[in-house]
Amino acid sequence: MSQREFESTLHTDLADRMTYGGYLHLEKVLNAQEPLSQPAHHDEMLFIIQHQTTELWLKLMVHELRAAIDAVQRDDLEPCFKVLARVKHILQQLLNQWSVLATLTPTEYAQFRGVLGNASGFQSFQYRLVEFLLGNKDRRMLGVHSHDAEAHKVLEAALEGPSIYDVFLAFMHRTGLPVPLATVERDFSEPREMDDGVIAVFKTVYENPNQHWQAYEMAEKLVDVDDQFGQWRYRHLRTVHRIIGMKRGTGGSSGVPFLRQMIDHQFFPELWEVRTRIEEVR
């Protein structure tokens, strides 16, 4: 059996030095999995790690979306393209994770589901923050976090601030495209309604990409994110259905029917509608 050469320059005396585990605080990360079932059921570890890793990816997505919003507000779209491409790939990782959880059978989950009590992914502060940053605003969601003053404060600020789509529409308005002023100067805490004036602007952008390249590229990056998010939601629905059938959710929801309500949700509706209205070249 061949062995890799153990190079003499490798650092092996790591006393009082920065180490891999120290930099990543692995003593905290790897000790944060505490199954509650008694005796601990083998598959509860899978369930915990699945959701903890999801929260880590959501944390990175929040970090990236805030950077994207800041870049657009500075009229600097180039770095935003890279950031949104990264968000799309984060969502791809989250999508792939469902295939791991789907190995959990209904019988296995039933052995420890009771220890969750009322805990539910619906209560994820970071998931709600991502939804708000992408523009799916709903003030009712603040109530779910009224027990956590800091989370409530952060979510309220995101609710009342502009989403990535809001700042993009404002960018196009500033740079001369006829985005209706009412869609730019509005109460950001309210959900947006589809606007024919915005659709007309995107139609101009898509039919003249060379003249509006930045807006064209940004629009496609947003569609990438919206599309990937929709696939993630759908895979979530299928995984839940596979594991618990039509049981109610631990958080009190109807379960699968509740998740199904969001399957067709679009963060950026005009970017989907414009595809129907683009004229074919004759």
Runs in which pLDDT lies below 50 for 5 or more consecutive residues are: none
Mean pLDDT: 95
Percentage of residues in helical conformation: 55-70%
Q: Structural class of the secondary structure composition?
A: mainly alpha
Number of helices: 13
Overall geometric form = globular
Features:
mainly alpha, globular, 58% helix, 0% strand
What's the short version?
By secondary structure, the protein is mainly α. It has helices spanning 20-23, 26-29, 44-73, 77-101, 106-110, 125-134, 149-160, 164-174, 181-184, 196-207, 213-244, 256-260, 269-277.
Outline the structure in words.
It is a single chain. With 282 residues, the chain is mainly alpha-helical. 58% of the residues lie in helices and 0% in strands. Helix 3 (44-73) runs antiparallel to helix 4. The mean pLDDT is 95.
Task: Outline the secondary-structure elements.
Elements: H1 20-23, H2 26-29, H3 44-73, H4 77-101, H5 106-110, H6 125-134, H7 149-160, H8 164-174, H9 181-184, H10 196-207, H11 213-244, H12 256-260, H13 269-277
